[in-house]
Amino acid sequence: MNIDEKARLSKIMSQRGLCSRREADVWIEKGWVFVDGQQVTQLGTRILSSQTIEISKAARQEQKALLTLILHKPLGYVSGQAEDGYRPATVLVTPENHWPKDPIQQSLPVGRIHGLAPAGRLDIDSTGLLVLTQDGRVAKELIGDHSLIEKEYLVRVEGDMIPGGIELLNHGLKLDGRPLKPAKVTWQNGDQLKFVLREGKKRQIRRMCDLVGLRVTGLKRVRIGQVRLGSLPSGQWRHLASDETFS
């Protein structure tokens, strides 16, 4: 079998949804990965896609301990790294901001939130559901190149929509010279639209509305896949429940 028909073990592990590529490298170095029953500890090892991969109990336990949180991001916080004097949303993950109605009432020891990162962006002037995770599998599911997870938004607008604007919002607009994927856009009432998207270009909804004569005055994300914001108060967070999945 030609070596060109093989791929890096870490890449195949990621493709199979076992973990992220970075996690795979850590596990390989720790001796937690077995290919066809043989322990692999060499980074960069290449295997055939047909070979069997197993991970140790220690890897599964470490993965199970990874946090995924749901945060109701308020206005004025950035979803990623601090920028332009604004604070990142992760600073809200404190014991004081833990939603009292969270079914999982586990404490957060000092240092427990290390590596917690947003799985998708939410602009500083937008509010709503933000997923923060340490789990590379969750990040890949939500923001990977082939992700088809729906994101639902309630959008307040003002202005006069051009003729055929709703049809264009659903399919037919371009941003940065590239056609957008089909969306589901409907009027909720006289000044509010519901957007359901399967992609997330920078300030996409605001730019889409600009193209049809509308200006966004408020934007709130209320659902990602099957996970809803629900009654989680602004500025508070909860754990992703063990029986919740995005897809």
What is the count of β-strands? 16
Helix-strand category: alpha+beta
Count, helices: 6
In total, the number of domains comes to 3
Output the radius of gyration. 21 Å
CATH class of the largest domain: Alpha Beta
**Secondary-structure element pattern, one letter each:** EHHEEEEHEEEHEHEEEEHEEE
Shape: globular
Instruction: State the helicity in percent bands.
Output: 10-25%
Distance between the termini: 36 Å
CATH superfamily of the largest domain: Pseudouridine synthase I, catalytic domain, N-terminal subdomain
Catalogue the unreliable spans.
none
Proper CATH architecture of the largest domain: 2-Layer Sandwich
Rounded average pLDDT: 91
Largest sheet: 9 strands, mixed
Kindly estimate the percentage of residues that lie in beta strands according to DSSP.
25-35%
CATH T-level topology of the largest domain: Alpha-Beta Plaits
